[in-house]
Amino acid sequence: MKYNGILLLPVIILLLSVYPSYAQIALSIGVSPTSKVIKLNPGESYSDEIVYWNLSDEADTYRVFISGFEQIENQPGTAIILTAEEDAITNYSASKWVTVSKDILELEPNKNVKLQYTINVPTDTTDGEFNVEIFLISENAYQQQGTAAFTNLAAGTPILIQIGDDYVQNAELLRFVADKKVYEKIDVNFLTTIKNLGDMHITPTGEILIQNIFRQEVARIPFNKNAQSLLRDTLGNYEDNWTQSGYLTPSKAIALGPMKAKLMVTYRSFQPGFAVLASETTFWIIPWKIIIAILTVLLLAIIIRISKKKIEKRV
Amino acid sequence: MAERVGFEPTVRKPVQRFSRPSLSTTQSSLLRHKLYHKDMLFPLLTNIFNLHIIIYMPNILRILFTIYICIYPISLLAKELDSPNYKIVGATTKGGGTTQTTDGDYSALLEIGRISNNPRNYSTSYKMFTSPEEAFLPAVPEVACFETTTNGSSNCTTGPTELTTGGMVAICGPSGCYDKARFEIDINDNPTDTLYAVMISTDNFSSDIQYIDGSSFWPESISTHNLSDFLTKTDWETQVFNIQGLQSATTYYIRIFALHGDFTQTEPGPISSATTSAGSVFFDIDIEDSTGISAETTAPYTISFTGAYELIGGSASTTAEDRIWLDGSTNSEGGFAIVVRGVNGGLKSDTTGQTIVSATADLNTALDGFGIQSEYIDYDTYPYLGSITAMTDYSGTGNYVGIVGTSATKVYESDAPVYNGRMALKVIAKPGMDKSAATDYQETIYFVLIPRF
Amino acid sequence: MKSLKTSFKIVVPTLLLVLSTAFFIVFSAQAGTLAAVYIFMSRLKAGLDGSGANAVQFILAIDTATTIPTAGTITIEFPDDEDTSWCRTIGALTVAGVAGSAADLAGGNWDIDSALPTSGTLSAACTQGGAGTVDTITISNVGALTAGTTYGVQVASSTGVLGTNGTTGEHEVTVTAASGVTLDSKSFKIYLLGDDAVVITATVSDMPTVVCSISSNTVNLGTLYPGGAYATGGHTISTSTTSSGYYWAVYGTGDSSTDAGLYKSTATTHLIPSGATATLDLTNATIYGFGLTLSDPDSTDPATVAPNFVDTTAGTFGTIDRLYSGAKLVLSQSGTQGSAENSTVTYGAKAGSSAPAGTYQETVYWICGGYY
Fold first, then answer.
1. Do domains C32-192 and C210-370 have the same CATH topology?
2. Fold (CATH) for B142-275
3. What CA–CA distance (Å, rounded) separates B96 from A271?
């Protein structure tokens, strides 16, 4: 009996040892609509719904957050909710106007779930644009030990609420440059920074005209073709790209040497032509490898020629 | 007293009763031609007399006269054979004895010294047998029941209990049997080993006369009728449908003979008739939500993925609120098949030119799709009737759907007659992320019910 | 005596001849029923005129009880008071044998075994009934039909046009297979509906959608050896959208006050911070921290990984910050994405030499959205 006890003990200890275990599940969320723009009046009430779904094989639980939002890293068209403190102090948050039907959403696999929301606009609201995001963040019960990174998935629907018809749209073009000064190949990123000074979001649109030294149009590329919007009182960085293989355009214009890019942007929804933002920048396209190769060939040709002449002279 | 020669009570050999000479006896020998003549020697004597004449006539006349005298008695006999009162036994008058065909089916009892069949020999209490086998004749049987379309009750007593309580419709389906029937025999106290044969006709035995075959239970011509078509009451009635191969919507007449030993076939019993069903089929479509088990709706039949059931590209599958409810019942022996076919092979938009293609698939894993799934099946349960099943592709769960393609596919099937079949189909759609927004995605699904008679 | 002899020479053979022929009494052939039959119509709607979208086809499955000799016909006859409604236009029909149909009952008599045999070229026509006659579909030049074999044949409109009667409910049809005096037939019912179609309509919403997935909510980083090599672990993220583009942003938790990073919450607590620099080169012996990289979902544009988070240099990871305001854009794409595309996320972690032993964990929040 004694020996049995000695034998059993290590076995029991072994069985009680805890090994790192990880309960892994996939996370998935689908959202529609991805954003919404609504026009309302003070005192008005508006109800609608957002549809969510889960395409993974396991149920995922999401907590619902309602908060004002801001852009992520000055990237127009993006949204991240504010913390409770930030939301409390911001002037443009409509989070207190919004109620939702549920605080926790259980997304069963392969099922559509609807979240109803209601926006009740206070009667004393000033004109202008307000924002709120209905934001879902997944919650997982982690039962693991060991060094690990856990992930949560979040997605939201930013809602822009325009109150009244009296609003100001105003913007300033702060920067327009090419990302480099000299390019060997034509792969130019144009970086634009616009500041929204108005009280509405704007969706700047326009184009960048590129000319060569002979003032010939070499390319015309759209500005902000994704229609990324810029929130009021916010800075937005836009990036547009010009890529071309070869240095000759279809219209036989040469894209070499000093180039000039002109940006023309409109942003107002009413009479946009009266508020055009414009700027210029220059850059060089120098295919130096090709030039060196050509020069080398030329040089060789010259040297050979001179050598020939010398030989002939001797003869 | 005539000696009973050749009588073997244990060997059951019927004596052939012909209304006309049998096809099978194509042998030309007169000796093989079995006729039992009850009280007429006249044609025989006539022949002997005529032979006398033939001998003394010129050649051509002899030929003609020979032909005439051969045909005359045959036609006379044939006419007399049509009589229900006469049976003729032939042909030899040399003493008594039994002779039979090589197949053993037919025998002839030949006697000498017949007892007169003068009715003055009868009294109310007794009858003097004119031939020995009459002492062993069984009682003439009657038809206890002959049914095809009885409903709610039955005179048949030895069949299934469902028949006794529900009538033939309980074992054949709506409107009864269209190609078979059941009969039972009232044996009138005959011994249990008595055999019976059944004669059947569509014109009350005026010209159409057939017998029921003892193994296939189908009507057969006299040429194939033989001893094996005589069965005991038990053997006849063990078979639930003991008359098969009938035409629909036709009145049939039957009468039964009994046999209890050589030469003991009775007269046919009284005639009984029954009319087969003309066949029955019913089909109906209704549109109602999942609670619409008893719903009855009229055309046009539409199901919409709009409003709260609007489709969202890239989202999870959506099941339409309404179901397609189907009614199906039939008495066809092969049950029915319900088949679907779609015009577009999916939900097609003329505006975008795109189609959410229908295929058999699990829409939980497929990126895009459309189809139907069986949700409900019910029917009246009868042990002798059939059941309804959904085909494999349409029997899925969750978001597994079966195809609605441009070629017809079978969705439901019954394997036998069915009462009050009721089925429901869910319609499930999942547009892929690549499907452009439009309000005119549409598919037309045709439903066809095929009864198999 | 001589006369008698002569007589016998004439009489006996004549007698025998007559008597032998007398026994050849021919019975008329018995007409039987069909063992199995079905008619599979392409449409069950009453009142179809057979033109265009209202075309009607018939598939007939037939199993005779008697073997019907070759060169026979098969007829389908319709009710007498429904003349000209089944055969809408008199004329030839297209006809072809079929070896099976969707209405077959597997394994039984109602399962087509083979296409209808032919004797010559199969032909079919429909004729209209009049006084005393009925609408009839006649298939001619049928080959021998063996009892017990189920044959299939399809007829469709051609010069002759098939339609359906205008009355809903049961209709009795009679199918007959005949050759010479041999025939089998059966009368049975088919059913017509007021409407045989269910129309499904659907609206695909114009609301933009975005679908985002993470393959695993837990990434094992193994054991970190203080001052040793860096450990990695990863998962994938995938995105599809109908909006004008999508983006992913990331923020961490860390110790919930200082920085994101791997945090040992048990005593002695310790944070391996993500770091203050934009990227970490964990191949450098003096550098420790926690970061991540993403792979480019499409080797060409339009999806773009943010410059600090590209995975092109092994051992170099982008750092993350805490809170919503610390969210960093890691991946974006301009333009819709019809089918889900994947990016592989790799976490890199390295503990500093002062990090105490224990379990370190970080919760990373992945935010996904569509451009507005």
1. yes
2. Immunoglobulin-like (2.60.40)
3. 132
Cβ separation of B453 and C188 shorter than 8 Å? yes
Class of the domain covering C32-192:
mainly beta
Distance from CA of A151 to the nearest CA of C (A): 5
Nearest-CA residue of chain C relative to B311? C204
Q: What is the ipTM of this complex?
A: 0.85
Q: Are the beta carbons of B401 and B369 closer than 8 angstroms?
A: yes
Which parts of B322-417 are beta strand (E)?
A: 322-330, 336-342, 346-349, 355-357, 361-362, 369-378, 388-390, 400-401, 409-414
Task: Count CB atoms within 10 A of the CB of residue B3.
Answer: 12
Q: Do residue A54 and residue B316 have CB atoms under 8 angstroms apart?
A: yes
Buried-state track B308-336, b at ≥16 Cβ within 10 A, e below 16: ebbbbbbbbbbbbbbbbbbebbbbbbbbb
Nearest-angstrom CA–CA distance, B358 and B342: 9
For A107, nearest residue in chain B (alpha carbons): B316
pLDDT at residue A165, as a whole number: 83
**Any chain B CB within 8 A of the CB of C310?**
no
CB B309 within 8 A of CB B342: no
Each domain of chain C, given as residue ranges in start order, spans: 32-192, 210-370
Model confidence band, residue A111 (pLDDT cutoffs 50, 70, 90): very high
> Cβ contact (<8 Å) for C212 and A140?
no
d(CA C133, CA C115): 29
Q: What is the pLDDT of residues C19-56, one digit of tens each?
A: 544 444 433 445 788 999 999 999 999 999 999 999 99
User: Which of B310, B311, B315 is most worth mutating to test chain A (most A CB atoms within 10 A of its CB)?
Assistant: B315
Of B55, B285, B410, the CB nearest to C103: B410
Size of interface A-C (CB pairs under 8 A): 196
Task: Return the residue of C nearest to A37 by Cα.
Answer: C372
Q: Helix H segments across B168-312?
A: 169-172, 233-238
Q: Which domains does chain A have, with CATH numbers?
A: 24-142+150-163 (2.60.40.10), 171-290 (2.60.40.10)
Is C23 part of the contact surface with chain B (CB cutoff 8 Å)? yes
How many angstroms away from the CA of C78 is the closest CA of chain A? 51
Question: For residue range C62-113, what is the model confidence (pLDDT) as tens digits?
Answer: 999 999 999 999 999 999 999 999 999 999 999 999 999 999 999 999 999 9
Secondary structure percentages of chain C, helix, strand, coil, to 5: 10, 50, 40
Q: What is the residue whose two structure tokens read 């079929």?
A: C98
The rounded distance, in Å, linking the Cα atoms of A120 and A40 is 10
Instruction: For chains B and C, count residue pairs whose Cβ atoms are closer than 8 Å.
Output: 270
Which runs of consecutive H residues, i.e. helices, occur in chain A?
2-16, 84-89, 288-314
Rounded distance between C-alpha atoms, residue A88 and residue A67, angstroms: 9
Residues in chain A closer than 8 A to C301 (CB atoms): 241
pLDDT computed for residue C66 by the predictor: 92
Task: Judge whether C112 is closer than 8 Å to chain B, CB to CB.
Answer: no
DSSP 3-state of A270: coil
- The yes/no answer on whether domain C210-370 falls in CATH 3.40.1350 is no
Query: Which residues does C242 contact at the CB level (< 8 Å), separation at least 6?
Result: B313, B314, B433, C208, C209, C210, C336, C338, C370
Closest-CA residue to A236 (of A194, A205, A201) = A194
Query: Is C326 in contact with C320 (CB distance < 8 Å)?
Result: yes
Q: Which residues of C touch B34 (CB under 8 A)?
A: none
What would the pLDDT profile of B288-334 be if each residue is shown by its tens digit? 999 999 999 999 999 999 999 999 999 999 999 999 999 999 999 99
Q: Considering only CB atoms, which chain C residues are within 8 Å of B452?
A: 36-38, 61, 103, 105, 110
Whole-angstrom Cα distance, residue B34 to residue C225?
115
Any chains having at least 3 CB pairs less than 8 A from chain A are: B, C
